[in-house]
Structure formats: C-alpha cells, structure tokens
Amino acid sequence: MSDVKTEQMQPHSTDGKMNMQGPIAVVGVIALGASMVFLAGQGLSSYVITLLALLFINAALAVSLTLTNGLTGLFSLGHPAFMTIGAYVAAILTFSARRKGSMLPALPEWLATTELSMLPALLIAGIAGGLVALAVGGAVLRLKGHYLAVATLGLIIVVQGLATNWDGITRGGSGISGLPRHVDIWWAFAFLVVVVFVTWRIKFSSLGRAMMAVRENELAAECSGINASRLKILAFVIGAIMAAMAGALLSHLISVVTPKTYSVLLAFNIVVMVVIGGSGSIFGAIVAATAITILSESLRPVEESIGLYGMSQVIVALCLIIVLYLKPSGLFGSNEPRSLRKLFGQRV
Amino acid sequence: MTQYLFQQIINGLALGSLYALVAIGFSMIYGIVRLINFAHGDLVMIGSFSTLALVAAGIPWPLILLFVLAVGAMAGMMIETVVFRPMRGSSQVTGFIATLAVSIAIQNSALMVLTGQPRNFLFPAYMRQRLELGGVSASLTDIIIIVLTLLLIAGLFLIVYRTRLGTAMRATAENLTAARLMGVAVNRTILAAFAIGSALAAVSGLFWGGKFGQIDPLLGFVPGLKAFVACVIGGVGSIGGAMMGGYILGLAEVLFVGLLPQEYSGYRDTFVFLLLIVILLVRPSGLFVRQSGERA
C-alpha cells in the first residue's frame, strides 16, 4: 500500500482546499439513514426488521466484492469461503463457555474458556479472514480470469470440507446452532456504513485509480510504476476481511452457522449484484443488492405456497443473462451517479 | 491386499470414466470458443434424469444409451444457440458469468419440476452382479462403464481426426478467424462441438446413476467442477489431456479414500480442489500440454 501512495501522481484537486461539504454530506446521509432505521425499529414487524438487516449485510457484501471484482478486476467467487471462516471464528468466540465443553470438545483450553462479546469477536473474525486471504492470495492471484474464478470456487469447497470434517472444532455437518443473537439491524447498518465509507475512500484515491488501472491493463499499470501483484493481494485481502465480518454478522443474526450456510449459490448471488449494478460502481452494487434481496424474499412466500422452490433463483439467473446481453457493463458502469459524487465532494 | 487394490483401481477407472466423459466436452468447448462452460456439469443431471424417464417408459438399455446421447446433444445445442451465441465476442469473464447463470437456472428449474427429493436409480440386476476372475472380483457395472467409455472416446477420436467435421473443429480451435476465412462454417462447427460434448456428459449422467444408485437435481454441480479439475490436470483445450486428467483424478480420488484411514475420507473433495490449486500453480497449462509462454 505504502509504495502506491509514495508513487502517486500529483495529488488530486479534491484534497487541495479545506472543503467541508463532503464530510458534512457524509454525516448528513448517515444521520438520515440512522433516523430511518430508528423509525423502522418503532413501526415495523420483527420479520421486516430482520429482512432489512439482511438487506444491509447483502449490500455490504456486494460493495465489498465491488472492491475486489469490480475495481481491481479479480474475478473471485471466494466470498462465501471467507464468510464461513469469519462465521465460525466469531461463533466459537461468542459461544457460551458453559456449553463449549460438551459441544466442541477439541477446542484448546484457552479457547474453551473464552467468551467474547460481539465487537471483539467480529474484529478477530475479520482478521482471520484477512490472514487466510493473504495466505491463499499469494498463490491464487497469479491466475487470471475464469481460472481464478474456479480456483476460488475450489476454495469454497475446501473450506466447506474442513468445516464438515473438523468435528471437534466445528461440530461437523450439523454446525453450531444457538448462537447468541448479538446482531440486530443497528449492527447491520453500521457495518454497511463502514464498508461503503472504506470502499468509497479507496475508490476515489490514488489507490483506487491504481486498482482500476490494473483492471484495465495490468501490463500498462505495471509500466507506470504500479506494483500490480501487491495491489491485487491488497484488494483481495480487504474484500476477504469484509466478507469474513459479514459472515460473522449474518450467522449471529440468524443464530446458526453450518458448513453449507454460505454456499456457491451465495457467491453467485453476490456476483450477480456486482455485475448488474456495474462492475466497480458502489452505488450500483447497493441498488442491485437491494433489488435482488427484495425480489428473492418477496418470491419466497409465493414459492412456498405453490411449491415451486427454486423459482426465485431461476428469475435472478435470467435477469443476469438479460443484463449481460443488453448492457454488459451493468446499470451504472464503473461510475457513481454524478449527483452523489458532487454531494460527497469528489471530482473524478 | 492385491485383491483390495485391484478393486480400488477398477473403481477408480470407472469414476475416472465418468469424469473423463464430462471433461472431454468441457475441453472441446473451451478449445473452440475459449469459454469455461459452467453449465456443462448440469448436462450430467439432465442425462441421468432422462435415463430414469426412459427406463420408466420401458425402453431397452441399448436404445436408452442412444436416446440419452441424443437428449444431451439437443440440450447442448439449445444452450449454445439461445445463450452463448448471442454472447460470442464478449469478454471471457462475461461468458463465464453467463454460463454460471445458465447452470443455476437449469439446476433450479430442475428443482421446480422434479423437487429436491433424491430418486433411486438402478441398473438391472444382470448389470450389477460381480465378476470373478482368477481370485479377483470386480463389479460388472464398473466394467461396463469403463468399456463403453473407451468405445465412446474411440468414436470421438475417429470423428475428430478422420472426418471433415473433425478437421473443421480442429481448425476452428486453432484459429477461429482463419478457419472462417478458409471457408469453415464456424457456427455449425461450434454447434457440433457443443452437441458432441454435451452428449458425452449426458451419458456420464446415465453411468452416474448406475454407479451411485441415487440422483437429484443438483447432482451435476460437483462433477462439473471436478471435470474442470480433470481438464486442468490434462491441459484445458486438449481432448486427450482431458481424458487422461479424468482418469488420473478418478484414480487419485479413489486411492485417497481407499488407502487412507477412514476418518480422512470426508476430505475427498477438499483433496481434489487442493490438487487443482497446486496444479494451477505448478503447471498451469496441464501435465500433458507443452508449456507455452502464456500463463493461465
């Protein structure tokens, strides 16, 4: 990261003057969102509130994949692998020490007696995901395009295999259930805000421009002094940290994690959100995540009433094919809407 | 011990045949349109469910084999015309996402129509007996799978190396534009490659049911991924390499389960995909293809 910073071209005009409009807009938008979440908490049923939390986490997932797949052009399908890692790490940390002894007999002594609250568990989950991504990334990121996609798909299966078979630590196929329900809509909202903020800052910095340069033409980017492989690992690791945290949050929202909770189907759905929104567009990822989450959740009762399970997924897949066919660059291309960029004081 | 090992090897060759049949189609399609067709594995599922339907309709087995070949070919041609032809010329990743979408759509449509309930699938009793030969025994199902697979592959090699269509395919794989300039009907050739590859995958589905006894709408996913691993082992784009890759993978998987203590057998898929990652890193163009300058 550091060498990219030092090698950057002339600083962009954004940071030249003391421009307070951006930060004020950020605080304003967050306050607006928070008050809406508060109002939702007053008036809506707990089902809808959980759904909103799910939507926020899905949006955060899509945005985090935007960083890896969209901005840097690494076609990774590995998000569920990191989510699973994060979910299990956090689950083991927050699980009640009283029940660990009988349920997870192979845990080392110090782990069996620890019982953390959500925030430290979440951070450690993120670190664990990031470390795995660092270890794996050094190897798999030498691959390109669909080879990388399949290798990361393999990673999901490797992680699932470990989670299924490492009985004493993960309780095998039955998974860990009865997790403390630490996560509510506020956690999900805060997480979405942090993920969007971090991704936005990265995108509109020299780092983000370097990432897009790698996406467009790796060789040319290298020639202009960008250390492409280091940048790719960075994008992969940041995406993985966010994914691992999302996994930890999701599993504490639904209070269970099994080896199959985060599957290839989820990887597909997140990729669909990124592609439909436009690879590299944060706003697009949020819009697409919202649309697809609402679509599949509202179709669920229909599926159940007429017994056609799988229908929503067929519709999502068809939507994707149609978008790829008509507008391969997605709804928003690689851009953010002009009004948003103006609001947050970015001139790109 | 030799008895046990012999059985494991027959078992591995049968499993390898299943992978090889899928991997060959995978490799043919990649070789010609440079597209990793993710939906290829789902043709295995289509093949096994069509077999089930044909058995229920009381059709004799040799005819079933032919019908399944035809069903696979038609499904492959349909996928090619409806989805992949309009996308030709777009980027590799776009194509890959599209095939992933097709795969998800096929799987979930099958779930809608057939429900997730696994179905029992049995070859008739005379195909399931055990064969004794000089102190070693093997299941007849495995032998049938191995022999028929080798016959199909031999037929495929005849098509690819002895017919005009095969010449056109090899030319298109070499250089699509040049082949078109030389008067090769490229679209028809690509369609034929999809048809042949998909037919082989569907037959693999027929065998899959016979070997494992149970089928469900999502069964194609893992064989599809493993066929990709087999391709990578042999070198993506090479038909012979895909075949060898399939057999190596089948043997490796069976020996991994058979020779290691019981408690490791759950890790078979983990092992396969670690193998994939290692091979991609060490020899990205496969074990049987000359290393070229271009990296995967």
TrEMBL record, chain A:
The keyword DNA repair does not apply. One of its GO terms (molecular function) is branched-chain amino acid transmembrane transporter activity. Keywords: Cell membrane, Membrane, Transmembrane, Transmembrane helix. This is Inner-membrane translocator. The lineage of its organism: Bacteria, Pseudomonadati, Pseudomonadota, Alphaproteobacteria, Hyphomicrobiales. GO terms for cellular component: plasma membrane. It comes from Nitratireductor basaltis. Signal peptide: none annotated. It is a multi-pass membrane protein. InterPro entries: ABC_transp_permease, LivM-like. The chain crosses the membrane at residues 21-41, 47-67, 74-97, 117-140, 147-165, 185-202, 233-254, 266-294, 306-326. It is found in: Cell membrane. Its main location: membrane. Pfam families: BPD_transp_2.
From TrEMBL, chain B:
Keywords: Amino-acid transport, Cell inner membrane, Cell membrane, Membrane, Transmembrane, Transmembrane helix, Transport. InterPro entries: ABC_transp_permease, BCAA_transport_permease. Signal peptide: none annotated. GO terms for biological process: D-alanine transmembrane transport; L-alanine transport; L-isoleucine import across plasma membrane. It is a multi-pass membrane protein. One of its GO terms (cellular component) is plasma membrane. One of its GO terms (molecular function) is L-valine transmembrane transporter activity. The chain crosses the membrane at residues 12-33, 96-116, 136-161, 190-207, 227-259, 271-289. The keyword Cell membrane applies. It is found in: Cell membrane. Belongs to the binding-protein-dependent transport system permease family. LivHM subfamily. This is Inner-membrane translocator. The lineage of its organism: Bacteria, Pseudomonadati, Pseudomonadota, Alphaproteobacteria, Hyphomicrobiales.
